[in-house]
Design a protein that fits this description.
Elements: H1 6-15, H2 22-25, E1 81-82, H3 86-95, E2 99-103, H4 116-121, E3 127-130, H5 158-161, E4 170-174, E5 180-184, H6 190-223, H7 227-239, H8 246-272, H9 275-284, H10 291-302
Parallel strand pairs: 1-3, 2-3
Antiparallel strand pairs: 2-4, 4-5
Helix pairs in contact: 6-7, 6-8, 7-8, 8-9, 9-10
């Protein structure tokens, strides 16, 4: 049998990616593919790792990070979520149950605000409401401007009304009407969150007391037929930007009663073309919801 020429062997080795025989590669030291050698060849006569192995490389995501396997969600760690709705607020108000409002970050995983201890708080301590993510913060061009505060939680864009930074997550601890008292990140631990929830009733009491003082002063002024001063105290309450609390509801009611009476007076003045009366009314009702109506009335009698 004819022997294979050495040059042909070398050519075949070059084709499969080896420039020299394995024995020559391993000669007198460490095998470059993982074995060891004490002589002119590997101990077993062949290189134990002659086959090339593939090294796993994580593929970068389109955000520049590393692709990860999704984290399994344990149902025990998921809070009992409610949707923002009138029914939810009415239920919370009936029980005087604080509300925790969660605004997820952009592209947030289900585990962003999560954990068994947090989930337990959603069963009894507070109502947990999860908002949808919105990047839009533009006010609606059809929204009517009013001095009277309205519910942020039930608005067309709660993220805008609560002033949540775009793309960022936030956890708000509110009273049962959605009035915010505390704010934190999603990394807040359950013990701290529980402590904040427990403080809400005291915060509501303090807020109510403050509103009541202004309301009492407004009533005193109105009894003296000083509507301008009464409105000053009512507007101070509105600037507190809370809703639902008894003194605030009473303030809103008084405000509308005063404005309704002023509209009746305005109509009479327009009919009589009483420019001086309208001017006096304009000073009295500056920065109220009727201000633009009075201005229009003045323009109307001038034309």
């Amino acid at each position: 049998m004819k022997s294979i020429p050495w040059t042909l062997v070398m050519a075949l080795l070059a084709v499969i990616g080896l420039s020299t025989p394995l024995a020559a590669q391993c000669s007198g030291g460490t095998c470059p593919n993982g074995g060891t050698s004490t002589g002119s060849s590997c101990p077993t006569g062949t290189c134990p790792n002659a086959k090339k192995t593939m090294k796993r490389v994580d593929k970068p995501t389109n955000t520049g990070g590393t692709a990860h396997q999704p984290v399994a969600v344990d149902p025990k760690g998921v809070p009992t979520w409610q949707k923002p709705s009138t029914d939810a607020v009415e239920t919370a108000a009936k029980d005087e149950r604080p509300i925790v409002v969660y605004f997820p970050s952009e592209g947030a995983a289900d585990t962003e605000f999560y954990g068994e201890e947090v989930a337990e708080l959603s069963k009894l301590d507070a109502m947990f409401i999860k908002m949808n993510y919105y990047a839009d913060r533009e006010a609606s061009p059809w929204a009517e401007k009013s001095a009277v505060p309205t519910s942020k939680l039930l608005s067309d864009n709660p993220a805008r009304e609560y002033d949540i930074p775009v793309g960022k997550a936030a956890v708000l601890v509110c009273d049962w009407y959605g009035n915010e008292y505390y704010r934190s990140g999603v990394d807040v631990d359950a013990k701290k969150l529980s402590a904040l929830i427990s403080k809400v009733k005291d915060e509501v009491q303090d807020a109510g007391d403050k509103l009541q003082k202004n309301l009492d002063k407004a009533k005193e002024s109105l009894d003296k037929e000083d509507r301008k001063n009464a409105l000053k105290y009512l507007l101070k309450n509105f600037k507190e930007d809370v809703v639902g609390l008894g003194p605030q509801e009473d303030s809103i009611r008084m405000y509308h009663e005063i404005l309704d009476a002023a509209r009746t007076e305005l109509a009479t003045m327009v009919e009589k073309k009483d420019a001086d009366g309208i001017k006096a009314l304009a000073k009295e009702f500056k920065k109220t919801d009727i201000e633009s109506e009075i201005d229009d009335a003045m323009d109307g009698i001038k034309s």
